[in-house]
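Q: what sequence does this backbone want?
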């Protein structure tokens, strides 16, 4: 670990950064658009600390799940505010959480997140998108179950 990594990912920076982001999140609880983007900031923050802070993974999952659970409010608020603009594509909460689950071998959970993304008609930057990802995860799960 370099000196920069040690300084940047210190527990002092973690505590301060987390406190700051949570405070900013609480300030926008009434605005689903701003709340979604604050959740994305928290997702980036916790994702950066996954290997440096023992509670970052648990908090990352919690924030992703909150954003996914209330994503319909973001969509409604976005459409009301920006009537002629497309929704931002590929929200971090879906992408981060399915990857988190997949890398830990939690394939059922990863598949559930992908199905939620499909239900919201979320597009990502890959060919086949979430539909293809679900098929790949289901094949992987099938293979795992067959060999266990």
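A:
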């Amino acid at each position: 670990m370099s000196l920069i990594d040690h300084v940047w990912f210190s527990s002092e920076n973690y505590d301060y950064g987390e406190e700051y982001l949570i405070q900013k999140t609480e300030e926008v609880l009434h605005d689903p658009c701003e709340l979604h983007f604050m959740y994305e900031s928290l997702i980036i923050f916790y994702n950066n600390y996954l290997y440096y802070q023992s509670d970052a993974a648990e908090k990352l999952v919690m924030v992703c799940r909150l954003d996914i659970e209330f994503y319909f409010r973001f969509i409604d608020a976005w459409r009301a505010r920006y009537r002629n603009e497309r929704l931002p594509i590929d929200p971090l909460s879906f992408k981060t959480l399915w990857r988190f689950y997949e890398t830990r071998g939690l394939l059922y959970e990863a598949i559930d997140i992908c199905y939620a993304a499909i239900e919201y008609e979320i597009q990502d930057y890959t060919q086949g998108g979430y539909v293809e990802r679900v098929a790949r995860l289901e094949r992987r799960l099938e293979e795992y179950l067959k060999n266990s």
